[in-house]
Design brief:
It is a single chain. This protein is an alpha+beta fold. It has one domain: Cytidine Deaminase, domain 2 (3-Layer(aba) Sandwich), CATH 3.40.140.10. 34% of the residues lie in helices and 21% in strands. It has a 4-stranded mixed beta sheet, with helices on both faces. 24% of the residues are buried. The N terminus is likely disordered.
Length: 147
């Protein structure tokens, strides 16, 4: 009789306790999210960003992706902390857009503490990212500061 391999040893069923422990500590429970179908104005984009990042303490750069009808199709955290945010390029923004087939995006900088106005360096960074994304067919619609 040939030995058989059991997949059960690799893929065990999650019990109640292991299901609670399996989630990432920064993960936001999906049941608590109230995500809109469309992003029509800066207020709706800010509301989505606050819902997605409410458990974060550090500075985060988030990109919200939309299709050509402004339907919300995805999001990506492209930088965590001010060091990564200072060195941000258009490459991770474009990769996320390709993954969810987005045609438009909103760049959101989330700061839980501190000033909610963009510095001149952040505005220059946004303009360069928007220009690079525009050359590849992705429209960067807005740049928001959310706290």
């Amino acid at each position: 009789m040939a030995p058989t391999t059991s997949l059960h040893s690799f893929f065990r069923a999650l019990t109640g306790r292991s299901r609670r422990m399996a989630s990432h500590p920064d993960a936001v429970p999906e049941a608590g999210l109230n995500l809109p179908r469309r992003i029509d104005d800066p207020a709706s984009a800010a509301r989505v960003a606050r819902d997605l990042l409410r458990s974060r303490r550090e500075e985060v750069v988030l990109v919200l992706y939309m299709d050509d009808r402004h339907r919300f199709v995805g999001h990506a955290v492209v930088a965590v902390g001010w060091v990564q945010a200072a060195r941000l390029s258009a490459h991770p923004v474009l990769l996320g857009a390709q993954a969810c087939r987005a045609t438009g995006s909103v760049l959101v900088r989330y700061r839980r503490y501190g000033a909610l106005s963009a510095t001149e360096a952040e505005q220059a960074s946004f303009r360069s990212i928007a220009a690079a994304c525009g050359r590849h067919g992705l429209a960067v619609v807005d740049h928001l500061m959310v706290g």
